[in-house]
Amino acid sequence: QLQPVESGGGLVQPGGSPRLSCVVSRFAFGYSFGWFRQAPGKEREAVSCINTGAGGFRTNYTDAVKGRFTISRDNPKNTVYLQMTSLKPEDAGTYYCAARDNAFCSVNVADFRFWGQGTQVTVSS
């Protein structure tokens, strides 16, 4: 199975700029990778998504993070990144990297088959 592994979370002050990483076993043709987050007591929500097509790619962002977060990928390293800037308290939560064997991005949790264990982002003071 494809097995995403997230890292980069931790304690961050408001306004900080952490970068999350998601390492996967392979970047298969036609796959898409998404970042989701879940705050305590709330449902998991989509944050961003990127496809892995050989001849270009698309990215998507939820309105809450547009202009502040950037998703990217490094194909030789089999890694997807989420660069977060101007961090807000409402950005806190567990961030999950997920993969689906489809070229189109999705905001639906059920559309993603492979999930990482999550990395915790805590926003202090």
Write the layout of secondary structure elements.
Blueprint lengths: L4 E3 L2 E3 L6 E5 L8 E7 L6 E7 L7 E3 L7 E6 L4 E6 L8 E8 L13 E2 L3 E5 L2
Parallel strand pairs: 2-11
Antiparallel strand pairs: 1-3, 3-8, 4-5, 4-9, 5-6, 7-8, 9-10, 9-11
Summarize the structure.
0% of the residues lie in helices and 44% in strands. It has no helices and 11 strands. It has strands at residues 5-7, 10-12, 19-23, 32-38, 45-51, 59-61, 69-74, 79-84, 93-100, 114-115, 119-123.
Model description:
- The termini are far apart.
- This protein has strands spanning 5-7, 10-12, 19-23, 32-38, 45-51, 59-61, 69-74, 79-84, 93-100, 114-115, 119-123.
- The strands form two sheets. Strands 2, 4, 5, 6, 9, 10 and 11 form a seven-stranded mixed β-sheet that branches. It has a four-stranded antiparallel β-sheet with strand order 1-3-8-7, with no helix packed on it.
- It has 125 residues and is an all-beta fold.
Descriptors for this entry?
125 residues; mainly beta; seven-stranded mixed sheet; four-stranded antiparallel sheet; globular
General shape: globular
- How confident is the prediction overall: mean pLDDT? 92
Task: Report the end-to-end length measured between terminal Cα atoms.
Answer: 40 Å
- Backbone CA Rg: 13 Å
- Strand segment count: 11
